[in-house]
C-alpha cells in the first residue's frame, strides 16, 4: 500500500487488515476457550480461522488437541497429519498420531507412524519407548495369527495371553485377544471354555459377529441347538 497507493489497493489492503484483526481476536478467544476447557467452542473458532489460515500447523495442532479432548480421534489424526507435513521435523505430530492409532487398537498404523518419528530423531525418548511397546505387541499378534493359520490353536491361545499381559491398559487389545482365544477354543473343540470366553467378549461387544459365530459352533459341539 505504501509503495504503490491507489484507491483499489487501499480498499483491498484495509479489508485485509480488518480481517487480520478479526482473526487475531478469534485466535485469542480460541485460546481462552481451550484454557477454560470449552473444547467445542475452541473448535468452532479454530474452524473459522483455519478456513483462512489453511497452512497454519500450530492452529491445526491446537484443534487436534481439542478433538482428542472431545473424543473425536479420527478428526485429530487428520489435523495432525497436515501439521506433520506443514512443519519440518514435526516429531511431536507423528508421536501423537501413533499414540491415537495405538489407543484405537490399530497397532500396525501406530508402528508405521512412530517409525516416521524415529526417522526424524532416533533419540526421541517418547517415540522410542512407544516404538518398543508397539513393536513387541505387533510381533505377538502376528505370531498368534500365524499359529491360527497353521491350526496350532493352543500356541495361539498362549500367545494371545501374552498380548493381554503386554498391554493391560488399553481395553481394545484385551477384547480382541479374547475374541481370537474364543475362536481358537471353538476350533479346538474345547466347547465349554469357548462358550465362557465368547460370552465374555459378547458382554463387552454384544454385536461382535465373530464371537457370535464361534460361540454358535461351540454350542453345536455341545448339542445345544436352541442356543
UniProtKB/TrEMBL annotation:
Short name of one Pfam family: TPR_8
Endpoints of the signal sequence: none
SMART domains per UniProt: TPR (SM00028)
GO molecular function: misfolded protein binding; protein-folding chaperone binding
GO aspect biological process, one term: protein folding in endoplasmic reticulum
InterPro entries: DnaJ_C3_Co-chaperones (IPR051727), TPR-like_helical_dom_sf (IPR011990), TPR_rpt (IPR019734)
Record-level GO cellular component terms: endoplasmic reticulum
Keyword line: Disulfide bond, Repeat, TPR repeat
TPR repeat feature ranges: 91-124
Name of the protein this chain belongs to: DNJC3 protein
Phylogenetic classification of the source organism: Eukaryota, Metazoa, Chordata, Craniata, Vertebrata
Name of the gene encoding the protein in the UniProt record: Dnajc3
